[in-house]
Amino acid sequence: MAHTAFDEMNGGGIGQADPAAVRQAYDILKAWLDKTSPEHFNTRRSQAEMLFRRIGITFAVYGANESTERLIPFDIIPRVLTKPEWDFLERGLKQRVTALNAFINDIYGAEECIKAGIIPPDLVYRNPHYRMEMRAFDVPHDLYVHIAGIDIVRTGENDFFVLEDNARTPSGVSYMLENREVMMRLFPELFSRHRVAPVENYPDALLATLRSLAPQSATRDPTVVLLTPGRYNSAFYEHSFLADKLGVELVEAGDLFTKDDVVYMRTTEGPRRVDVIYRRLDDDFLDPLVFRPDSVLGVPGLMNAYERGNVTLSNAVGTGISDDKAVYSYMPEIVKFFTGEEPILHNVPTYRCREREAFSYVMDNLKDLVVKEVNGSGGYGMLVGPHATRREIDEFAKKLRHAPDNFIAQPTLSLSTCPTFVASGVAPRHVDLRPFVLAGADEIRIVPGGLTRVALKEGSLVVNSSQGGGTKDTWVLDA
Amino acid sequence: MLSRTADNLYWLSRYAERADFLARILDAAHRLAALPSSYGGRESNEWASALSSAGDPELFRTLYDTVNEHTVCNFLAFSAQNPSSIRSCIATARENARSIRTALTTEMWDTINGAWLELRSYEGRDLSREEFTQFLDWVKRVSLTFDGSAYRTMLRNDAYWFTRAGTAIERADNTARILDVKYQILLPASERVGGSLDYFQWTTILREVSAFNAYHWVYRESIKPLLVADLLILNPEMPRSLASCYRMLVEHLDLIADAYGRRGESQRLASKMRAKLGSADIERIFASGLHEFIQGFIAENNALGAAISEQYLV
Questions:
Q1: Which residues form the DUF403 domain (chain B) (predicted)?
Q2: Chain B residues inside the 8 Å CB shell of A54
Q3: pLDDT exceeding 90 applies to what percent of chain A?
């Protein structure tokens, strides 16, 4: 199917690299690609790698034993989106995140959407990410999802789909920012010939968002911290990078304690009150008194302070429910129910294996479908039918039959491709896009673009960094 | 600032300083071991002495059978089992640095991270004598660059002061350890062994604290054990002397106390030691026992470390 993919530079399909067919957004870039030698690309690429290694951008791959720190491959050819394309995405993203917040507020409160039959109750109440604790109180400003990474794929000139909603602790924004820095250092001439919308204001937007969410009991100058599981976490680089850009303390659980339901951090000058915690730690580990008692990454008493309204957790506890891929499949109805509007961004058609009819369809068509675990992430535990062997399909079918509720299936989308510098030269590779949406008490902020992930293997559709994916700088042309 | 951040900064600079100390000890041992035995080059002694100045002999014995150049160099330079080897110092410094990236300047991070990356090119193979010397020079350069980048690029606030305090307390400990192992060489009794032999032992001590040239500038005399001890313990001009280290400690701990508006045990201990060193006299120290003095110092220096930790770092 890959050979019919929409190419964001050449349009149509891959075989038609007719210069006349180049899409306008890529005009200048195409000319540049044509006149630049592979040696020059190679030099620039190794310079880029050196820059990344020096600044220490690495990520840890779980289970990889030879080295725990690796660079995510960076592709030096940018991906280009036009202003109208971005405006459309931006409207769709704002609508979707608004709906997500209303939905989560509702399932921990009035439960209107369940009463109205928009979503089956067991999908909510029996969901492993549903947190009973959250029914007991209201979070500040009724906002739950403050930072969302909405994964978007494209299949044609005007065809964008939401692939996943990441409403827990989405990562990758540091790559968006560093990719741009590195590109500007390596290719200043390209930036002088394009009007690329800046992304460097993301940290300011994030800080403004976090501050807007401070609890009422906070002072007018609330103290924000970023809570990390620590330097062994795969995204630790990003945590420290963001804390630095935000100018807030990067804390580990041991740096925090609670007293009389107020959270403090241990400083060289004694305890200091904390008002907003941008936590990059899963719900399960936040507070050993409430969630996993074996968690050493959490802060005992944190949930009590949270319930008392003495601290804001960002994102709120219990947002993981919207990462669930079965819940995802109801998003079109959820958007309509809570916003009263037609969804601007469409879902990928999704078969819920929990439904008998869908299940038998999926079983009969495994070789054409992508099957995912409803709670999976990072590209682990999924089946890409067209790329799987007979035996892999049979193995997967067994898992599916054993627990159909845990899976959904989607048609294999032919993701759009972008020119990418690989061993054989410049060649099309499949991409997706993760824009970062910030929902504050005052407004929703989105910096133009996001993180483009690219599957570096020819024909591969899996863009996750843990599965050999790379990243690209993403340009929104401000024409 | 976060107590953990201060703790990491403090230990980061201690490890950077310690790596430099280890490199100097190994360098000086190589020089001495290379001398003909009639000039004091007694190989096995020198490596045993390097080991007791810079390492944990008990841990060493669990890992190696004999004390010689090869085993001691391996233990002090590259052993992953030795938490105070050069390799471990750089690795731990880098781990510390990584968890507080936000508190470091880019230049400091580059130095530590770059050192950690470059360390691999020396590890895991047999280095020739020449390569090993290059390695030691490289280690000294890393510490120098780290120190310099801290000095040149950090904001003058508590982060910087904790960094300097870490350097100073580690340096004091290192100088004192050299004296602790070699004190008998400096005592008058050893002079009977004869001139030339001890001369090279004394100059080795000076080289271990990078003070061979400084000695002549300060005293304008041939090398005498009493003055070597004076230089290392009491001379305020000598940056690695105990007196200098305490001047630096008092200065930076006071800056912290002023900024926080509160003095505590660490300021009290540091001032007390500084006053003691300021009023001491090297002849009286020799008269009342050099070894006892040094051991007392090491204990009090450790007590100050514990006080800093208690007051700020936990």
A1: 1-313
A2: 110, 113-114
A3: 72
